[in-house]
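In response to reviewer comment 3 from the previous cycle, which asked for concrete evidence that the modeling workflow produces usable outputs, we include below a single protein chain processed end to end. The sequence was submitted unchanged, and the resulting structure tokens are shown without manual editing.
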Amino acid sequence: MDVLDHGIDAAARGDFVAAIRACTEAIEAKQRLALAYRHRGHTYVRMGELDRAIADLTTAIALDPKAANPFASRANAFLQSGDYFRAISDSTEAVRLDPSLTGAYVYRGDSYLQLGEWQQAMADFTRAINLGSDFLGCDSHSHSRRGYCFWQMGDHDSAMADFTEAIRLDPNNAEALYYRGVGHQRIGETGKAEEDFAQARKLGYKPNES
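The workflow returned the following structure tokens.
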């Protein structure tokens, strides 16, 4: 196992400091540069250091423009920084290069949702769900966010079904619990609503932060 492999393994364990150190060592030694920049950039995304992430992922893309994953990771960084149009552009390129890349659909869906483009967001969350890959909890997240889109479009029954499925997949999905609570409240099921709200509060959810 070379130094970059150690860095990838460290990132998988959540040891981001060790991952950054190993990826940087690989870059300085000019070992598998595209992959080293990609993994360091992805680790910076997970750390919330978005400017550094974007810089590294841009370099990774320049070194290997046919690789889908750096586009998806940079889309996530743009999404987190509030640059939704660039997130959409990078996600679109990622799925062009690899139509099976679940995360790219989710990042694009989240970007469309932030822009109030409910139909486009719903289509991407449906694609992510249909891929059947629970990448980093994408299935629960996608059901929750698609449910929010259904709600905004007035299809409350489909919304409630999606919120319930999101909770089944991940009982700690506080966002889905909160919005299902809103749904219960609006149809007069106050007891069920308070149960969902209480659980969402216990998990630390605050409305309007998603």
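Residues 134-210 form a domain with the Serine Threonine Protein Phosphatase 5, Tetratricopeptide repeat fold (CATH 1.25.40.10). We consider this sufficient to address the reviewer's concern, and the full set will be provided in the supplementary archive.
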